Amino acid sequence: MADTTPPGRAPARPLPIGAFPLPFGYLLLPDDAPSRLVRDDLLAGRLPGRWPPSLRGYERALRGNFDGALAAFTGDDLISRFNRFVIDTGSQEPGRLREDLGPPLGVLVDLVLYATGRTASPPDAAGLDGELAALVLAAQASAAAERGEPAVAIELLARATGQAQPVYPALAGVPAGRHRRPHRRPDDRLQGRVRAPGPAARWRAARPVGRHADLSLARLLLRRAVRGVHERPGCRAAAAPAADRGRARVDQGRMRTIRVGAAAGRAAEGPPAQPPPEVRGGWQAGPWVGAPSPGGLALPSAQPTASWLYAPRGVHLGTHAGHDLLVVADTGNHRVLIWHGLPTSDEQPCDVVLGQPDTTSEGPAASGRGPRRGMNLPTGVLVHDGMLVVADAWHHRVLIYREVPAQDYAEPDLILGQPGPDCVLPNRGGGCGARSLYWPFGVAVVEGRFYVADTGNRRVLGWQGGIPTSGGIAPDLVLGQPGATCRDENRGGPPGPASFRWPHDITGVPGLLLVADAGNHRMLGWHPHPGQDRDADLVIGQPGFDTAGEWPYGPQRGDALRFPYAADADAGRLAVADTANNRVLVWEQFPGQDGAARDGAAWDGAGRGARPADVVLGQPDFAANGENRWQGVERDSLCWPYGLSLRGDTLAVADLGNNRVVIWRRP
Prior knowledge:
This protein is an alpha+beta fold.
C-alpha cells in the first residue's frame, strides 16, 4: 500500500525526526490515526512493535530497503513528496518543495541537502525552535567541526541538546525507552556491502562522513577528537543516541566503564586537581547512587538494578515517619526509587521501586503493562505531609500517593491532569484547559501552596489549598498565560516579566516564589506569592526581563544561566542547576520577601539586585562550563545536572549525564 496523506495536511509537531538512522530519521509522518501511535513510539525513543500497513515504506527505509521505500511513497501530497526527496534528492526540485512546505518545515529541505553533501553550508536556525532548531544547530556543529573548530561545534551541540530536551528527549540523547530490536546505522551498512547504483545507493554514497544527526553521539565524537578518547563512539553515559542503544549498551553482569585518555593520564600522575575550596564554599561530594566508577564514562547495565540509574531527572530529600528519605526519578528506566534513610555508601540499593513491577524491569507504562501503575519519563518528585507526588511527564499527569509507599509497584491514589488512570493523552486529548497538563516536569509546595510546572503548556499552575484531594479540583492560579486555554511560548511574543518558554521547576520561601524558566535561561521571582497572573519582579540569570540570551562560547559568570532546569531553596539559601553549564550555583543568601537582599545589598524591585552566586559546584571556577570539566568522571564533577534538592547543609544532585545522584554536604 502506498504511503500517502491528504494534500495540505501538515505533520504534527514535535516531529519525530533526527534521533534515528538516516535517511529514515528524516522521514515525515502523516497526521492520521495509525501514524499517531507510531509517532508516539518514535518520540519516546523506541521503535513500534508493529508497523501499520499504510506505513510499510517507513519500515522498509529503517531496514535499509531504500528502493522499496521509495516505491511506496507514491502520493502527490507534500509528505510523500518530501519523503521521496529524503531518499532520492534528485526526485524533487528543492526550491519548489521548500516553498510548498513553507515555514518552518521548509528548512528540512536544506537540512537534507546538507546531510547528503549537495550543499556546503547548513541552514540558519533563526526563527526556529524545538526539534527543528536542534537539527539545524547540529548541522552547524558539523560544519564547525569540518572547519577545524571543535570547541565551537561542541557548544553548538550543547545548544541543540537544550532545544531538543523539552520536546524530544530521544533526539537529545536522553533515553525515553529502549528499542525493541537493534538496528544499525547507515554508515555500518556501507561497510562490506556493495549495491548496484540507484537512488538509495547514491544517497548513501553522497552522505559526508561525520555528519551525524544524533546530538549526543556527535558531541562525544567531537570531544574524542579534542581530548583523545580512545574507546569507540557511542559509549558516553546517558548520551548514546536512541538509534544506537540496541548495540551500544553492554550487559556484562555489571555496568561497563569506559576509560578516557585524559583520566588515564592523570591516574599515572596522581589524583586530579580539585576546585579551590573557596569556590565550593565548603561543600563536599559524598555518596552516590548510580554509575559506579570515577575516572571513566559508565554505561548503565542493559538490565536495571536496585541501585543503578539511567538519566535521572529528579530527586528529593525528605522525611517520613521521623526518618530521612531519598526519592529519585530514574527517568530513563521509567520508574521512581525510594531509599528509607539517606544512602551512606556508593551503589546502595533502593528500598522501594514504583512504576515497574520489580527492580529489573524497564520501559514505559510498566514495561507495557499499562499506565495504571506505570510511568513514562517521570521527572519531578516531592514528599510533603507524608504524601509522595510524582510528575509523570510523558503521561501528562501528576501522581499522588497519600502515603509514601513501602511496597513496590504501588498504585497512586489520585491523578491530576487526566480523566482516569488509563488515560495518557496530552491535555486530556483535547485543547489546553484548567485541568489539563502537557509535559508537567516540576512539582513543589511553597508556603502551603501546591505548584505544577506545566512545561508543555508554558505555564505554572497553583492550588491555594495545597496538594489537591481530588483530581477534579481546578487550580486557583494560572501563571504565565493570559488564560487557562492559552499555551503560546512567551505568550506569543518576546520574553517578558509575565511569560515562560519552558518553566521547569518551582521553589521559594515565605513571601517569594521562584520559577526556573529554563528555555529563557533565567529564574523569575514574584514577591509576594502571586494570587493571579502578573509580572514577576525578580529575574536571575539575565540582565533584564526582556532578554533571554546565553553565552556558550566564552567564559561564564556567577550571575548568568544556561538552561536552568531545577532550583531549590531552604533556610535562606538558593541552589540552581545551571544545566547546560554543567554546574550547580549556590547563593548563601538571596532576595527575600521584604524587597531587599538578605545580606543588605539593595534590590531595586526591577530585578537588577540579583547578585552573582557565592558558590559553584562541579567546575573549577565560575568561568568554566565543561562536561565533567572536559576530563573524566570524578565524584565532584557534573554532566548536565538536571534536578536537585536542598535541605539544610545537604544537597542531592541528579547528575543526568553521569547516570547518578550525588549527595553533597557542607560540614
